[in-house]
Structures are given as C-alpha cells and as structure tokens.
Amino acid sequence: MAAKVSCLSQERAGYLEGLVSQARNAAAVFTQYTQQDVDRIVKPMVLAGLAQAQHLARLAIEETRIGVLEDKIIKNMVATEFVYNYVRDKRTVGAIAEFPERGITEIAEPIGVIFSITPVTNPTSTVLFKCIMAIKTRNAAIFGPHPKAWRCCREAVRIMYDAAIAHGAPEGVFTCLEEPTIEDNVYLMHHKDVRLIDATGGRGAVKAAYSSGKPALGVGPGNTPVYLEKSADVAMAVVDIITSKTFDNGTICASEQTVVIDGEIYDRVLEEFAALGAHVCKDGEADLLARALVDPQTGFAQPMAVGQKATDIARAVGLQVKPDTKLLIAPIAGVGRDYPLSVEKLFPVLAVYRAKSADEALRVCIDVNHAGGLGHTAVVFSRNENVIRKFGEVIDAGRVIVNSPGSIGALGGVYNDMVPTFSFGCGTGGGNSTTDNVNVYHYLNIKRVARRTQAHMWYRVPNQIYFNRNAVENLRQFPSRSTLIVTNPVLEQMGHVDIVRRWMAPQTVARVLAIPDTEPELKVVMQGVETLKLHEADQIVALGGGSVIDAAKIMKMMYESPEADLAELAAPFLDIRKRVVRFPGGKENRVRLIAAPTTSGTGSEVTPFAVLTDKSSGRKITLADYSLSPDVAIVDPQFVMSMPKGLTADTGIDCLTHALEAGVSIYASPYTDSNAMQAIRLVFRYLPVAFEHPDDEEARSMMHNAACIAAMAFSNASVGVNHALAHAFGARFGVAHGRANALMLPHVIAYNASVPTKFMPSPNQRAYVAHKKYALTAELLGLGGESIEEKVANLIAAVEGLLDRLAFPNSIAGLGISRDEFERAMPDLTRNAFDDPSWRSNPRMPLVAELAELFWSAYDGRGKTGIARAS
Amino acid sequence: MGQARLRMEGDLVHALQSALDSLEKVDGELVLDFSPVRRIEPPALKVMEELAARAGERHVRLALEEVDVNIYRVLKLSKLASRFTQ
C-alpha cells in the first residue's frame, strides 16, 4: 500500500500494486542468484538490445519526434555494447572486493525494487542501460517512462525482459507503466516497497524523486559551459563541438550550451564554425532566437524546440539559413535572465561569448555553470595543462571533459575512460548525492565485513645495551671528535664524570655540561643545544638520573632538528601509530646518544620518553617517540653504589610499578611479559637487599638491570592507571614519583584485578586477563595460593610487605596531608589523572569516580582499601 | 485440532498446489516441510500468497519447517515469512 495515495482510480492503484508486488517477488527471488547466473542473463540481453537498436531508435523518433535516427541508434548501441564492456567483468554478487591487508570484505546486496523514470530525450537508450544495470545487480525495475515516450520504452523493456526471462531471470523482474501519468509516478515514488527511485528526466521528475523521502538518484538538467582557450586546437575543437551539439539534435543534457572563447581566437573560431555548416547569427538574429526559444516567464528553453533540427528551428523563428545548416550560433554578451540564450538549450542552438582575458573567460564559465549547470558537465579545449587544471578547480561539474565533445564525452567510454552511463550524477550542486556517472555500483548496497584488526605490535629497544660492573669501558668503541657529557654537579664532584672521560675513545674531545638534577627545564635544554652547536658535537654521553637523560634526549632532538616544535610534539595521542604529530625525520646534525643511568628506576636509558618543564609557560612537556630512545645504554652498577637509601627505595618501587603495569597492559606481549616478569622477580629479591645493604654489589647490579629490563617492558607495553594517579598526586603535593607510585600500587593491583566497570575499548584486549597475570606473577614469586583470587591477594600482600620493609609511608594521610586538604584537591586530582595518557593502556578503563575512590584508598592506606579486591 | 504435514518435494509449485488442495481437509495446522527446497521462484511465491490467504479464511495455521536460510531470506523480502509460523 502506498504511503501517500494520490488521486488515482481504484483500478489504476490496483494495477500499480500488481506491478509492485510482482517486482517485489522477483527481487526477493533474485537474491538467490549467483554471479554466474546473473552474467548468463546479461549478455543475451545486451545482444538483444544491440540487435534491436535500430528498431527502437525508429520507434523513439516516431513517438517523440525528437532527435536524429542515426544518433539514437548509436545511443542504443552505447547503452548496450559500451555499458556491457564496462560491466562484463565486474563482480556485483556476493563478495565483490577483498582487502585482506585491512581485513575487509565488501559484499554486494541488491536494493530490491527500483522505480526508474526515463526521459523523453533518450528514452530507449536509457531503458536499455537501466535494464542491464538492474539485472547485473539482481534488482527488479518498474519503468516510468515519459508520457510522450512510453510506447517505445515499453518495447525496449519488453525486448530486455524477454531476453532476460529466456535466460533465467525471475518473472516480473521488469515492468513498464502503460500510459503513465504524473499521479502514477507520485504513487510509486511513495510506495513502501519501492526501495530506490532512479529518476533521469526533467526538473519536475527529479525534484519529485528527491522530495519523496526515498533514496533517489535524481539526474536532471545541466548547462554546460565550454572554455575554448587560445592554445586549443581550434579545428578539432570546432568539429568536436558541432559533433556534440548536433548529436541527436542536442538532446543529451551534457551537450555544450555556451562556448566562451578567448578574444584572440574568437573570429577564427566563428569562421571555422561557419565553414563547417554552422550559421553564426548576426545582430538581431540572436535576439530573434532568444525571444522565440526561451520562455520569458520561466527563463527556460521552450520544450517544443527540444531535439529539433537547426533548419527547422530557424524556419520556425523566421531566420534565413542555408539548407544544410547544422547549428545556430548566437553570440551573447553576458549570462543570466538578461541573456536568455545563456540557459540550457537541448537543441542545436549554441551561445558564444568573446572573452577579453583568461580570467574573464573563467568568470563567464562559472556564471554559466551557476545558471542551472551546477554539478553537471563542463568542457575545456586547451593545450595548456595549467588552464585545464584551473578550469577543473573552479567549475563545479561532475564531469570536466577535456578536448572532446561534451555530450558523447560525458557518456563515458567513447572519448575517455569514464564509466559509460546514461545518468549523470550532479553532486550536491545539482541536488544529487553523487557526482559519478551512475553505474552498477549505485544499484547496490555495499556491505563491509570488517574483521577485527590484529594490531601490529613491536618491541623496540636500543640496539646496544652494556651492563654489569665496568660496562662503561665499552665507551671506547664509540669514536667521536667532539663529545658533550651531560650530567649534574653532584655526579661531577663524585668523580663519575672522570670515569666516563677515562673510557672515551682516543682523540675524543670531551666537554662537560652540568645541569641541575631536577626535571629539566626548556631553558636548560636550549642552552645544551647551543653548547652542542658551539662544539659541533657528534656524541652526547648522558650520565645521571632520569632528569639528566631526558634532558639529553631533547637536546639531541633539538640539535638534530632545530625546527622541531616541542609544544606540538607534546600533543596527546591515543595510539602512537595514529598520532597527529610526526617527530622530525630529517636530521641536520647526526649525534650519538649514550645514556649511563646513575639511579635504578626510571630506565630512561632505554625508553622513548622524555619530560621537561617550560617554566616561562608553566607547562610540563611530555614527549614520546622511539626517535628519542638513546642509541646506546651503559648500565654500570658502579654509578649507583652510593645511591642514598630513600632514593634506592623510591626508584626501586618506580621500577616495580613499571614492570607490574607493563605486565597487565593491554599492549603487553610475550616479549614485554618476559621483561616485566623478570624485573618483578629481581626487584622482590634484590631491592630489600640494596636498601638494607647499600654496599651489596650484586643487589645494586641486579636492581640496575631490573630498572633497565622493566623499562624495556614499559617502553613497548606502556604503563597504566598507577602512573596516572601518581603523576597527578605527585605534581599536586610535591611527592617524589617513586613514592607516589608506592602509595597507589596495592590499591591499583586490587582495582585492576577486579571485574572492570568498563573494559578498555581496544583490539589489543582480546580477553580480560589482568587478574590472571597478577596470579601468574604471584606464582613466579612463589607466593602460594590456590585460586586466582588468593594468588592476587598474596601478591598485594607481598607488595605491601615490600613497601613496609622499605619504610614507605602507609598512606597519603601519613604524609601529613589533611583529609580536608585532600578533599579540596580531589577535583583537580581526578581531572589531571583522567587527562594523563598513562591509563590508556590500563586493562580497566577508569571512571572518574573510580579514580577518586583509588585516591581515597591510597589516602586511607594499605590494608584498608575501599576498592574491591580481586573477585 | 489436528496437524497435517506435507513435504515439499519435486516441483515446488505443484507441491504447494497440493497443499492448497488439502487445505480443505486440514483442521488446525498445516506444516510444510521445506527441507527439499533449495530455490524458489516467483510462481511459487504466488501460490504461497494464495495459500496464506486461504488458510487465513479457514483459520488454519500454516507452519514452515526446515527452511533453508536463502529461501527464508526470499520469504522475508517478499513479506511472506510473517504469514507462516517457523
């Protein structure tokens, strides 16, 4: 039943319902057909159409009295042969395209019942074209021909239908309205079983199609501007324009309407037109044409002239022309309502305009384009590629035809490699949804079967890591003319710099830059860059804790890529592979960075991260990119033997946090797991020893290795919500990073081990395994327990025991921070923690309320956590 | 209330015609076993429409069994699926 019932007789409505019901069943049955079934039907249809091309052309001429027989035959042949040539090898059934590298398969789904409106100007060719498209895509079509062309269309449909049925198409796949009316069209356009309206025709039909509320391909009138530029091959251009504009007496809506000619060649062009059978109107003649051929009320061309011969038009308007005149050429002085012949004229009357300059020519072409031709077709004749490109840029046309006839060129497949069509998508400029030459793909719903992507993983670490006591001796294998040792004053005083100097390669001139042992400042980094430039350094040895190594990483980057914009490079990102900013690739000064850590925690010697502060703006800049990773790491325990106890504990727990977070990260891999697990094992075994017996060289060495190994894990698997909390809390209350981590750690383990409120939306998370991985860690540490819950509880207890043993405060409250002060800070803490990128790889996606809960758990202290323990 | 069962073997239009003919004798439910049906054509859909209409008039419940998924899709698209219980 139609949604909108028009004033149809019951009998007529029943007739239309019958057509729809038949088509609906045919379309339903058609879904069972394979590509081979379809292709078996299409070819004989095409052959039948070709065989009857002349018969159909003759019928069209007799019925419509429009156009040229010979050209209509050609149109029918293009609509069959050329269209078939395009569709014959196209897959239109089932899987039509595979993109294995993207895990995507495209599957064709037929549309169903298509209501297909065809024009009076190209009646049979449009029917042939649309029948082939419908069968190729397993759709059923009801044809609504122009009332003045329905008999020839009915015959075209019959020929196609008989051929299709004879080769297995479902009964009722095509039908054609008999004695069609506008009311029929309205009824069918609103019918709920009609899935698509494909309207090729006049303004009214196209507008009605788009107004129906149904998906529609509405292809209506144009107004083709032509730019005949001074470099063009004039002889070819004139022949092409005459060929096109007289083809079927100008009935193709892509045919040329106004030719804008550069002044330099204007007279020559008109002479050439005249020599080849065009009549160039003299003063007064053009006005005569305009008055007779354009309706002054509507501003549109008179329908009675459509598709008529030039001589007949001339006779009708009282113009004296030679009997063999092919085309009437009317010079115009502008575009718009004051220049009636600047509109679309689907008959062999062509407006011409003399342009004083190239700019003016383009402006006039734009005017023509905007006078009813938006999105349709435009033509340019030029040998100058810049002119062609410029024209293509400024004209809004779905088809810009170059150095060839507009009408036949736009049809595609004859003068160019565009898709053959009898329906020209006109884009939004023409009120259409496509600028394409309408083809089989517009008759399909294309479904995408998108498989889960297997994200490419990586494991990237510096390719040279030297460890154990005296690893520093390996420095000598790195030749350098000029080395800058970046360190801090304390290490210099302690004689560590002298050790480094001693093992530099011979002939190395080494200079020292001692910077403060705090989070590096931009100013300090830029001073370092100046020093590198001054001494034309080719090597940096960063000797120090995380701050010194981070500073050296940024110095290296800014030295090698002076144009790098630090603020931009610090832009946040969700996935390092898809980040907005790209770190500099071109390197002006190649410099080797060797990092020798003097603390056992941050692991900055192998990480791709660096943090600095811009005091002038008060901003903290966090950079992450593998180009920041040092080239060489020297993990020599002699540099950490004198670490104070507090620093040993803080950095050691930082290392443990890195390993535990990398272990449960959604980016964890077997590669990072091996690092994480080994680091955890080393920390539990050696951190208490290093803390209680600072001179124990084995413990120091193993903790130094643990820090580096844990960093290798989190460099590739990242960290988690513990770091997000610690960053926010540490920054707000001035608590050292390791200490802040320690306060959060047991609570975060309990949190991550319980069933998430929200899972992290990432293809990397194939299953929720955090609790199992904590349990595995507990097993590795020999903590006992039967169930996963027990093992997780034992791990938390072991972490808490370790923190107690390292004399960490039990709670945030234990730091002397009052509950009120903490309460006041909570909005900032949760906001900053949520903004922190660290949790993006956490196995649980934290809710803001959960972050607050975690902070409060840490405030209350160990053993009193408010977050549910492993469930 | 009884149940009659017909297996849709051989030419589907004929099989459905038989179902149509037997409708007079059914009191309750007529089950059409579609397991042999691998393809369906418009004439068969037409008979099914008639069958559904006649069954409605006679208050006979029509049920389909073992319908191949491709056939089921055709019945959905032709709006026949809802007229038979599955």
Could you please describe the fold and organization of this structure?
The complex is a heterodimer of chains A (871) and B (86). With 871 residues, chain A is an alpha/beta fold. Helices cover 44% and strands 15% of the residues of chain A. The longest helix of chain A is centred in the C-terminal third of the chain and has 23 residues, at 670-692. The model of chain A is unreliable at 1-5 and 865-871 (pLDDT under 50). Chain B has 86 residues and is an alpha/beta fold. Chain B has a single domain (2-83), classed as 2-Layer Sandwich (Transcription Regulator spoIIAA). Chain B has a 3-stranded parallel sheet. In chain B, helix 1 (12-22) links the parallel strand 1 and strand 2 (28-33). In chain B, helix 1 (12-22) runs parallel beside helix 2 (42-57). The two termini of chain B are 19 Å apart. The chains are: A alpha/beta (871), B alpha/beta (86). Chains A and B meet through helix 1 of A and helix 2 and helix 3 of B.
List the helices and strands and how they pair.
The complex is a heterodimer of chains A (871) and B (86).
Chain A: H1 10-30, H2 35-51, H3 53-64, H4 69-87, E1 94-99, E2 104-110, E3 113-117, H5 123-136, E4 140-144, H6 150-166, E5 174-176, H7 182-189, E6 194-200, H8 203-211, E7 216-219, E8 224-228, H9 234-246, E9 256-262, H10 263-275, E10 278-280, H11 285-293, H12 310-317, E11 327-331, E12 349-355, H13 358-370, E13 375-381, H14 385-394, E14 397-402, H15 406-411, E15 444-450, E16 464-467, E17 482-487, H16 489-493, H17 496-502, E18 509-514, H18 522-534, E19 539-544, H19 546-560, H20 566-569, E20 592-597, E21 609-614, E22 619-624, E23 632-635, H21 645-664, H22 670-692, H23 697-717, H24 721-733, H25 737-753, H26 770-780, H27 788-805, H28 819-835, H29 848-860
Parallel strand pairs in A: 3-4, 3-6, 4-5, 6-7, 8-9, 8-13, 9-12, 10-11, 11-12, 13-14, 16-23, 17-18, 17-19, 19-20, 20-23
Antiparallel strand pairs in A: 1-2, 2-15, 21-22
Chain B: E1 2-7, H1 12-22, E2 28-33, H2 42-57, E3 61-65, H3 69-77
Helix pairs in contact in B: 1-2
